[in-house]
Sequence to fold (233 residues):
Amino acid sequence: MRRLIEGVHHFQREVFPSCETMFQRLASRQDPEVCLVCCADSRVVPHLLTNNDPGEVFTIRNAGNFIPLKAAGGTRASIRYALQNLPLKDVVVMGHTNCGAVTALLNADLSTANPDDEDDIIKWLQHAREVREVMDASGIDGDDRMCAAVRANAVFQLYHLSELPWARRKLESGRFAMHAWVFDIPTGHVHAWNPETARYEDLPAEGFPVARPVTLDDLQRTVDAYKAQMTAS
Fold:
C-alpha cells in the first residue's frame, strides 16, 4: 500500500505539472475512439502496453475479458454506454497468456451451476461455457490447451459483442470494427486474430479489423486453425 501512495505523490509532484493542460481539457469530456476489454489480471497494464494518453482508450476490465451476452452487470452496462455515447470506431477484446479465469474455465465443474448458485466464480465462467465445450471436444491437451483456449475465448467474446444490439447497429453502419488480441506476457508480443484465416498472427500496423458479426463457427475455426498449426510444427 505504501508503494501505491508513493506513486500517487510522485504523479502529483512530477507528472501532473507537465500535463496539466491535458487534464484540464479532459475534465469535462472524453472522446475515445477505441474501447479495450481486457482482463483484470495485475500483469496486464493496458496503457503501458499501448502507450496511450488519458482519454484515448475507454477500458473495461474483468476476470477473463468476458462480455456477458444476457446477464446485466457492469461490463454490459459499460459497453452499452460506450457504444451509445462515445465516438467509438473500434472495440478490442484482449486476452493474455496464463489467464487465471481461463484456467478456471478449463478445470471447473460447470455442470453444477444454477440460478440460485452462490458461487460467483462458477456463475461468471458460464459466460465462456461454449469455449470449454469446444476445447473439451478438440483433443488439445497440455500447455497447448491453455494457449488455444485463451485465443478461442477472445474470439468467442467478439461473438457475444456482435450479438449485442448496440454493437450490431454499429457494425451495420460500416464505420465500426472489432478486434481480438492476445498479449503474451513473457515476450511482450501481441498477436491478433485474422478473420480470414482464423489464426492469430503478429499484430500488423492496421490490425485485423472484423467488420462483420462473429459467429460460433468462428470459434470452431479458431480452434481448428490452432490444431493445424500444432500439426504443422
Remarks:
- Residues 31-232 form a domain with the Beta-carbonic Anhydrase; Chain A fold (CATH 3.40.1050.10).
- The chain has a mean pLDDT of 94.
- The chain has two domains: 1-30, 31-232.
- Strands lie at 34-39, 57-62, 90-96, 177-183, 190-194, 199-202.
